[in-house]
Amino acid sequence: MPPNTGQQEANAIAKSVPAERYDRFVRLAQALFGAPMAALNLIGNDKQFTVSSVGFPKGEIPVEDSVCHVTVLEDQILEVRDLREDNRFAAIPAVVDAPRLRFYAGVPVRGQSGQNIGALCILDLAPRTLGPQQRQLLGDLGALLEYELTVQKEMDLVGQVQQLMLPASAPDIDGIEIAGRLHPAKEAGGDYFDWMVVDDPANGGKRLQVVLGDVMGKGLSASLFASEARAVMRGHAPFTDIGEAVARTFATTGRDFEANDRFSTLWVGRMDPITGTLDYVDAGHGLAIIVSKDRYRRLDQDYLPIGPLEDTWSMASDFLAEDELLIIMSDGLFDVVDDSFGELEARLRLVYDLKMSCRRIVDTLVTFAISQGATDDVTVLAIRRIAELDATTQGSAAGTT
């Protein structure tokens, strides 16, 4: 028989969801009922997956050797005073051999599909019976666990959508190497980045525009504001200079940020790949740095973030030489160096290597932040001019997200 939707969902959750997300429910069940064992078992097509447990081994067993595979067929608690006295379970290995289970009580748990995908159960080595209030309590725990499963699935989908909105390939502009990576603290986060090629009417060429923003907070709500700010900036940028684009982004999103007590730091740069001229606006971000062999310099301005209060964002200019790196990051990386620009400078010098690709630089910095226990979203962009060009040269450079 082919697996049904619930079995497919159980298989997917068992293989992808960290068990610690559900450990507290299992620990609570074990403590409330004074049982030596409690477990969350998910029922796949041919296996039971014990994804979280107390006193009971995690892992997989054939579905026919489980009790929970019967529980998921019902919409109510299954309670068995003594498994030896029930013909459905008397011969299964866990009853006949170690741990020699006797008592079982399990509540079916539905997934987002609406079908039962597993059971939260308590187990004992001696026969026993639950009272009415205990059965109600077990049912309440099962309902809470169902809610957790549904929310978790929604958050996973939000995170997937957010990742799909990031640039998937290098911009179509010659002479630029670029890479970016976002590592959210949760399934989704408030960091966002973007890059695009815009026309330069004054000089008749093309410019690379890069954006990195950081919405206050983490999780689903922050990701919604990040998506809005990114989309608005992308909509305005091709038609104006970046100072005006930031001002228009504020005009469009400021009321939403104010109504929800949010703000977003924002760094926007626009570079000529031929001359290296770099115009930028820093709206409260402060974490864009040009790194060279002997020194580094910050590209920041004293402006407010995008949020409740209006500012007069205008461009500043700098220059990126061919032996320099432009690195833009979110404060998730800055936080793990004790808010010290001296330590950050030392860390950036470790990745300054003309032989090291921007992809590797980005991965090295993000991996470092993760290894240091970063609790905030971590985003890094790295940009390098790779060749001197004349105005007629066209092509593309490699870069991935």
Question: How would you characterize this protein structure?
Answer:
The structure is a single chain. The longest helix is centred in the middle third of the chain and has 33 residues, at 132-164. The protein is α+β, with helices and mostly antiparallel strands. It has helices at residues 5-16, 20-33, 68-71, 93-96, 132-164, 219-236, 242-259, 331-335, 341-351, 358-371; strands spanning 37-43, 47-54, 59-62, 78-80, 103-110, 116-124, 176-183, 189-200, 205-218, 264-271, 277-283, 288-291, 296-298, 316-319, 325-329, 378-385. Helix 2 (20-33) packs antiparallel against helix 5 and helix 6 (219-236) runs antiparallel to helix 7. The protein contains ten helices and 16 strands. The strands form three sheets. The protein has a six-stranded antiparallel β-sheet. A five-stranded antiparallel β-sheet has the order 7-16-15-12-13. The two termini are 41 Å apart. Helices cover 33% and strands 28% of the residues.
Relevant terms:
disordered C terminus, five-stranded antiparallel β-sheet, 401 residues, 10 helices, alpha+beta, elongated, six-stranded antiparallel β-sheet
Q: Which secondary-structure class do the elements indicate?
A: alpha+beta
Helix content: 25-40%
DSSP strand count: 16
Low-pLDDT stretches are: 389-401
Shape: elongated
Order of helices and strands: HHEEEHEHEEHEEEHHEEEEEEHHHE
Radius of gyration: 28 Å
**Termini separation (Å)?**
41 Å
Task: State which percent range the strand residues make up.
Answer: 25-35%
Query: Numbering strands along the chain, what is their spatial order in the largest sheet?
Result: 3-2-1-6-5-4
Mean pLDDT: 83
> What's the total helix number?
10
Largest sheet: 6 strands, antiparallel
